[in-house]
## 1
Amino acid sequence: MAKLKVEGESKEEKFKRIASLRTQRILNDLRLLANCSDKRIYSYNEKDASKIFGTIEKELKRVKSLFSSPKNIFKL
């Protein structure tokens, strides 16, 4: 996907545009992952599912913390 630069776009507008596209992509990918739950087509066990969702939850928690915690940057 080509990066589209919008001239005169504020940081807030850019954030909203990019975050909306990326969020939609994540939601679409989660819907695709849900297709893997069909036991008529795929074979998996609870350990496999737990590993997938544990990894997703861990990364979601990490990213969520980036949005909520202040950045501790050392300055003199």
Note: The mean pLDDT is 92.
## 2
Amino acid sequence: MGVDFRARRFQPGEDAESKGEARRVKPIPPQARQAREASQPVRLQAEEHAVPFDSAESLAELRELAESAGALIAGEMLQRRDRPDAATLIGSGKVEEVAAAIKMSEASLAIFDYNLSPSQQRNLERDLECRVLDRTQLILDIFAAHARTREGQLQVELAQLEYMLPRLAGRGSSMSQLGGGIGTRGPGETQLETDRRKIHRRIKHVKESIEDVRRVRHQQRQRRESVPVPVVALVGYTNAGKSTLFNALTRAGVLESSRMFATLDPTLRGVTLPSRREVVLSDTVGFIRNLPTTLVSAFRATLEEVERASLLLHITDASSPTAAEQMEQVEHVLRELDCQDKPQIHVLNKTDLLDMAEQKALRDTRDKVYISAAKGVGLDRLLAAMDERLTGDPVERAWLRIPQSEGRALASLEAHSVILRREYSGDGIAVELEVNAPESLLRRLAEFRVAEPVKKAPARKKPRAPVVVRRPAKKKS
């Protein structure tokens, strides 16, 4: 069930009487009409920055979410209203229409593309005679089904408990616990208070467990940061192809699925860049429009990889008609995490789904790369762009003279640098190398560094003396 709330606006030169309003409205004075017409363009320009999703696109996204949760869609309805109804969100007339549709299709669940208040949810369940879920509950259910690790399960449970706590009113019977003895025959503690106390206790326990996970992650991160290996985090809208790109770069074998939130738990793998630098690639949870604040706060431990990353790869589905809106939603979540100022590369994925004319018009820039992770197109350009944008542990040109007995140093250069020139000394004891290597590696091999060799001018070749060939004299007859 999709709901689109749009305030009714009068066109210029139009009043309420021309729209058929039942109540009488005094005609608008000319001065007020001119002021209102002059103020309309300013208001519309301000709304353009919000980049709202169209109601039909939002309903299509709700359909994908429901199918990801395993639901079988029996029917869809879209309503446009000026303002939400306080009791049922959609009004009594629409409630009767939805109830009739539910009975005809024998549906057992109604999903609303709107965050319902506790009273609205109770009233709808009573009138529709079936379970009612809103958008946030549907996302939480998907997260709970796809959480595999202990960390992911704890974070989903915390988000569910925090969402459930204000919605306990009216749930179950409101029995009282009566005390025994003199002076204890009051109403006692109601069932609602008991449930709230249990939930508060469980929330405290889950938060302590998540803090333990965060502490372990911090220790692991400290060990990683002792060796200067930068972290590159994949962020983007759900179903943009992050897991496919992650597998294409790392061969990690992460689950790839067209369903939303198919992968939930973070994964870290190493990647070698063209400069032979090693980076850690982090696959994070996908973002979505109106991501519940409870999820953002609950998944703070997982999203710390985004906060600690040296570079963000912002993955977007280039074939989606709402690509610009999806990018804006991801930027909104990054602002909530205070990560909007981190270096980013916008990666436009799924270019193989575009028309040939559109593919030929694509041009990569320093901050934007067009790829197809499923087809393996553009991955070399992406790795080169990552190599260029990473400022930590920069690559330097250096000259080294290493004895051949230092096998460990030579092996490190072979594995983590680009060797441009290699020459052996006349006696064969040492190797002279010109390399492009990370600064951290050159710091460990500082004892072998030498100054840039002076290029000797090539020796001039002496001109050869002309060869005179004398022919033997002919004998006189």
Note: The domain at 1-12+31-133 is CATH 3.40.50 (Rossmann fold).
## 3
Amino acid sequence: MRPRPDPTCLRTNVASRASQGARRGKRLAPALLTVLFALLTICAGSAISIADSPKADTPADTPKTPPPPKKDTDAIPGMPAAVDIETRKTGAEPVVTSRPVDIKVNSTLVLINVTVMDPLNRFVTGLEKEHFRLFEDKVEQQITQFSSEDAPISIGLVFDTSGSMGPKLQSSRRAAAEFFKTANPSDEFFLVQFNDRPELTQPFTTDTNLLQNALTFTQSKGRTALLDAVYLAMHEMKKAKNPRKALLVISDGGDNSSRYTETEIKNEVREADVQIYAIGIFEGMASRGRTPEEAAGPGLLNELAEQTGGREYAVENVSELPDIAAKIGIELRNQYILGYTPKNKERDGKYRKVQVKLNQPRGLPPLKAYFRLGYYAPTQ
């Protein structure tokens, strides 16, 4: 018969084994936690790689091939069985191809300045549009613009300082001063003086005192290059700011020192939209000291002025100079402006003659109109 174990020893062994297991558990707990954490990490990584990997039946490096197009049983004979339509990408901006557009304006507006005088050589104001008729190459035109207001003017003073002007110089200066008195604040002026050759003494300015100061120290000497001076003034007038333009020429005779010819200057005057007014200070017809050039002077100045719608005033008594200059200034302030678009649309550069006729107002004596005789049509 086996002996029964002692209960006291049994409890002692159990307690001893329990304490040993607890100590072993304390040693194994960190290792188990480390193993569990590693297993969880491996599982999570496997889940991610599986989700991102291609399906088992589709190799990763094998490109997908689109399915064959479905056969269209309702296709129309002679037409393709399927139409490939490219889908527009969302957010893509449309491509716009721009080309410069050439805009051509073929209409031409012609402006004609008209001065109306009565038989006593007085200005006639107060006329209306219906009192005028306008013709181009004998074809009547429709007047589309009409004005009788005093618009700003760009004016060039062409002043003779040749040797023969000596005794007339002081009166000519006073004539210029009287002319400047008729100016408006918006007008602009320049000064060209000439003897053997022309010189631009004062460019464009609104201060007339500058021009008068320049004239104060002028001395007469040399010959007369009138045509060259007109050419220089026409060239300077291209810098004008105002649409209305005029030249005032004060000279005592014809040209005897210019490089340009009469024909060249007449063509230049015809091409430019500039009115020319001239004061010719000439010796009497019976004067023995009158040269052939001076004898031809009145005709030359008159032809230049007439072409542009201006006028030439012949003066024998120098005391009349200031009054005539003032009269020219007033005339420029009392002009009618007629505008029209030519019926002839050809841009051939040819010279076209202009004529202005008056419908005589009732109760007035016969009137006379002074106007520009023509212009050159624009070119292509």
Note: The two ends are 145 Å apart (CA to CA).
## 4
Amino acid sequence: MFMKAQAAFALSLIVGLTATSSPPGVAKSGSSPDTSHALINTCLITNDVKRLTAFYAQVLQIEPHKTGEDYVEFHTSAGTLALFSADAQEKYIPGSATAGQNHSAILEFRVGKVDEEYARLHDLVKAWVKGPTTQPWGTRSIYFRDPDGNLVDFFAPAPPPK
């Protein structure tokens, strides 16, 4: 588990460094995706694994895969969202992370219908950042915060203008 948690933490650090000028999920014009580097796992360090597990189980509608009390994974079609205990992180890699302090990354999930997700999640989510909006880069999005304050974007390609 240590190696998996260490790898998950390293990958989570990469999340904030992988932004491009292209919209989410779209390769830059004239280029193909680089298959030598694949972000497959993002790990959130938390002080309350149970609370965050319950939240993401409802939000993602995915059954979590638990490895003890300190580590949980949600497997999506594109990658894995992992949750790891701050106490365990400190034990394995001292001084490397502080739970609930992320203010520079966005967890982006492609969904089927943004407006339907907004209606479904409206009462569950306690911290809405932005309701359903069509973004200039061609996606329809909702933005909210999870119980640890991490910013989450549910997006879909914007419908064609009428």
Note: Helices lie at 2-15, 49-60, 86-92, 114-121.
